[in-house]
Amino acid sequence: MSSMTNTDFSLSIEDLTVSFDGFKAVDSLNLYIDKNELHVVIGPNGAGKTTVLDLICGKTKSTSGSIKFLNQELTTLSEHEIVRRGVGRKFQTPSIYENLSVFENLEVSYPEGRGVFGSLFFKRSTKVIDEIHRIAQEIMLESELETEAGLLSHGQKQWLEIGMLLIQDPQLLMLDEPVAGMSVKEREQTAVLLNKISKGRSVLVIEHDMEFVARIAHKVTVLHQGKILAAGKMEDVQKDPKVIEVYLGH
Amino acid sequence: MSFIYDKLLGGKSGALGLLVLSILILVVFPLALDGFRLNLIGKYLTYAFAAMSLVLLWGYGGTLSLGQGIFFGLGGYCMAMFLKLEASSPENTAIQSTPGIPDFMDWNQITELPWFWEPFSSFGFTIAAILIVPALFAYIIGVAMFKRRVGGVYFAIITQVIAVILTVLIVGQQGFTGGINGITDLRTLNGWDMTSDSAKYLFYYINCALLITVIVLSRFILTSKFGRLLLAIRDKEDRVRFSGYDVANFKIFIFCFAALVSAIGGAMFTLQVGFMSPSFVGIVPSIEMVIFAAVGGRMSLIGVVYGTLLINFGKTTFSESFPELWLFLMGGTFIAVVMFFPNGLAGLWEEYSTPLMKKIRAKIQPSVTAKPSSSSYETKESK
Ligand SMILES: Nc1ncnc2c1ncn2[C@@H]1O[C@H](COP(=O)(O)OP(=O)(O)O)[C@@H](O)[C@H]1O
Ligand SMILES: [Mg+2]
After folding, report:
1. Which ligand is closest in space to the CA of residue A61?
2. InterPro entries, from UniProt (chain B) (predicted)?
3. Is the distance from CB of A208 to CB of A223 less than 8 angstroms?
């Protein structure tokens, strides 16, 4: 690992800073993620975790620093271009199309017919339908394909949004608190799902639930007031006195 | 075949709704009404184009325009310019100080046809202009607004401001536009008397045919992935953007298409009513169009046609005897609909007819249990 250069990483964030009216929500952040790595960012509320995802996916423009994904600078691209480079992002509150069926939610997310005319003449081919069924099975919603998405349980909505990202086969998948509001059983299932989908891509997860983090994380970064407090394996991070003080202690 | 059925007619209920409407406007009205009243219906139906444009833009796209009168007016004025030039032949205008130009120009001491009027002596150019000018104008507004992520209330207000500016411009530039009176005294189309009964019937049928064409085209848009994207944008714009779509382009397209549809209505208005004036461009007509759409049901292309007809019957009936009362009545109806029946007439119909149909069907075929239909994933477009 130590002999690797930056270019071997899938995602490399260097010196990233964003300041909102002088308040640095993210402050000189460095973060590297490998392919096949499931990286979890933890930290107290307001630490800047969501802001990091906003910066990567282009929702917020950085004040300074660089975000390279597969050796391509993302900070200058617009949101849809970043997605088309292979970056998918799940929002903290489930963000799905409540008025459309589960099937339609997945179809709308299918990465074809993304232009105006492409979408007008998009055909629901058997390839598309098969892919939607495959993803629906993966996110445990195959029996709900015709259900209006607004009627799903909170946990199912979280899964659906993950599925909407998976159908685009992103190389970097970013999930903001994916198990928030889930039952114990749903958490179990989600952990299995995340372990499965982190193969062949990079996954960046923001999470609070320590037990859950321990189950899924390959590496952990602890964020505090926009800065990295500690990073490494979960066992090591958990023992770090600084971390215990600001985060795990209470 | 299934393409036509599902994509253009909107499946079973959509096809049925379109059939009923077609029979009503193509057969029942012409048989039951005299020429004068049929012409009145024809006029109302031109407003239905604007109401349908709002179904696409507002109902599905979630973007309210309070300026559809702009495009209705632009379409109407393009048509009126052509007809006015035809009515202003040197023989017809021999008594003017400058014969061969429209009378209002002569009254305003204009001695030469302005350059932008010149091409409107060609019928082909005029038809092209009706289709292109409003859509192009919408494109410019759309790019300026949507690329900057201006939407919601701000967009509504800006469209309204543009409608006001356009009205002021038309009224102020009397010599070029006919001012507050508009462009009047339109008599012939390619030498053919527009006020004759045969012309009125023909225009009425052309109007109906265009209306049905627009419904079918709109259904194609709404049943495509584009249509589902419109709903998705209305619901969660950010989710669509972060799924790899340039959201602004979709809004610009539907705004342009809505402008085109309104413009066709405006052009047909001029043909059937025989004039065009700024009173069809500004705030009041634009808001009336929103009311037609809201009352008919902003998610229903066919519902808004009924909504438009109903409100305009009401207007004609009431406003003759109690003009002041009508405004309050219309305002009240609008508020009541928005508060209690957000899906308008179409929503009410859906609510009461669907259970009834089910009951009837159950009585007819008590033994048949529900089987999964072949088009079970099709987006339902309400009648
Ligand atoms: N667009 C913004 N404008 C101003 N302040 C913001 C903005 N986005 C986030 N913040 C602030 O940045 C800090 C970090 O927020 P956030 O990233 O949401 O924290 P976390 O996800 O770790 O709980 C908070 O204090 C928040 O108020
Ligand atoms: Mg957060």
Report:
1. 1
2. ABC_transp_permease, ABC_transptr_urea_perm_UrtC, LivM-like
3. no
Residue A30, classed as helix, strand or coil, is strand
| pLDDT the model gives residue B366 | 58
Q: B-chain residues within 8 Å CB-CB of A101? A: 377
State whether the beta carbon of A48 lies less than 6 angstroms from ligand 1: yes
pLDDT in tens, A90-142: 999 999 999 999 999 999 999 999 999 999 999 999 999 999 999 999 999 99
Residues of chain B with pLDDT under 70: 1-4, 7, 365-383
- Report pLDDT for B374: 41
Domain assignment of residue B364, yes or no? no
Residue B244 tokens read as 């790899």
Question: Quick check: B227 and A121 in contact, CB under 8 A?
Answer: no
% of chain A with per-residue pLDDT over 70: 96
The pTM (predicted TM-score) of the whole model is 0.92
By C-alpha distance, which of B313, B291, B292 is closest to B302? B292
- Judge contact between A17 and A66, C-beta under 8 A: no
Q: What is the DSSP letter of B379?
A: P
Domain spans of chain A, in order of start: 1-86+172-250, 97-169
Alpha-carbon distance of A121 to B223, in angstroms, equals 10
B37 vs A250, residue with greater confidence = B37
Considering the domain boundaries, does residue B75 fall inside one?
A: yes
Q: pLDDT higher for A45 or A164?
A: A164
For residue A249, name the pLDDT band (cuts at 50, 70, 90).
low
Q: Do A108 and B226 touch (CB under 8 A)?
A: no
Q: Which structural domain range is residue B76 located in?
A: 24-354
Hey, what are B199's tokens?
């012309």
Does ligand 1 lie within 6 Å of residue A88's CB atom? no
Whether A29 lines ligand 1, by a CB cut-off of 6 Å, is no
Architecture of domain A1-86+172-250: 3-Layer(aba) Sandwich (3.40)
State residue B361's pLDDT score. 77
Number of domains in chain B: 1
From residue A10, give the alpha-carbon distance in Å to each of A70, A77, A89, A162, B313: 5, 17, 16, 20, 66
Chain CA centroid to CA B85, Å: 25
Interface of B with A in 178-197 (CB under 8 A): none
Residue nearest to atom 17 of ligand 1 (CA): A48
Atom of ligand 1 minimally distant from the CA of A45? 23
| CA-based radius of gyration for chain B | 22
Angle, CA of B163, B167 and B170, to the nearest 5°: 140
B365 occurs within a structural domain: no
Sheet of A64-69: strand order equals A23-33, A11-20, A64-69, A72-73
Tell the residue number behind the tokens 């795990």, with chain if given. A248
Asked if B240's CB is within 8 angstroms of A59's CB, the reply is: no
In a domain, B296, yes or no: yes
Distance A53 CA to ligand 2 centre (A): 9
In order of A54, A230, B292, B307, B316, the CA distances from A44 in angstroms are 17, 13, 52, 54, 65
Look at strands A38-42 and A202-206 and give their pairing: parallel
Ligand 1 neighbourhood includes A226 CB (under 6 angstroms) = no
% of chain A exceeding 90 in pLDDT = 84
Which pLDDT score is estimated for A248? 56
What does the pLDDT look like over A190-228, one tens digit per residue? Answer: 999 999 999 999 999 999 888 899 999 999 999 999 999
Going B107 to B112 to B116 to B121, the CA torsion angle's sign is: positive
